[in-house]
Amino acid sequence: MKTRFLVIPPFRIEKKDTDVDFLFPLKGFCVGFKHEYDYQDIPSDSYVYVNRLLDTSSLEALGNILEESSFRGIVFEDLGVLEYIREKELEIETILYATHASCSLKTVDTYLDYCDTVVLSLDITKEETDLIVSQAKRPVSLYIYGPIAYMYSRRTLLSNYENHFDLPVNKELSLEEEMTRKAFLGIENAFGTVLFDKCLFDGRILMENEGIRYALVNLDWEEDLDFDGWFREFLDGKALPNTTDAFLQQKTIYRLPPKGSSS
What is the DSSP letter of 51? Predict the structure, then answer.
């Protein structure tokens, strides 16, 4: 099975590569994106991305859009989206990207009983990723390039901070952790705030695995790009600036209570 690419496009671009499908962040149903797209402007037979945690009214609004549209597939985080699609028996491919949840083979196999494919979390190592890819009951998908979302809050954290200190309100804010000098970027809209690593994730090494269903590439931070030229160089392994491999070679650090602690 040949891996297909789902690409969140740079702003205003047309693609030519036949192995690429565009994945459009759906306006009103996403957080952490610089560019979103009204469902009426998204070409039919495309893929849409929904990463908000939804309440009943927003889930119903999304459902109305899905029923009216002819999207080929949806990448989503809230399991309510899957329940709606199953209940209404909508013919749309379901691609679960539960950002920090799909970290084990058992979890992934459970999700695969209900949806078409699962995008693995970036919180696990290459070794752990390879194991899941090789042993999952059906082909899984991988996020291989783009911003890394470390945290999502449904609160408007940037506006709250700026209003509290009487600062100009900005929906994007550069931050630096004082101890490590680690740089982050906060992006906010009306539905919440996402905190990103300022370095972009480069996981092309994961493409060594066979049988990957989709490889996700997020170019949302790009404004103007020769996509076909960039994509060819990307597949050829050209080095890219300002990138990180995140936890592929280093396990995520967990802080646990001391042994014998009752807390």
Answer: -
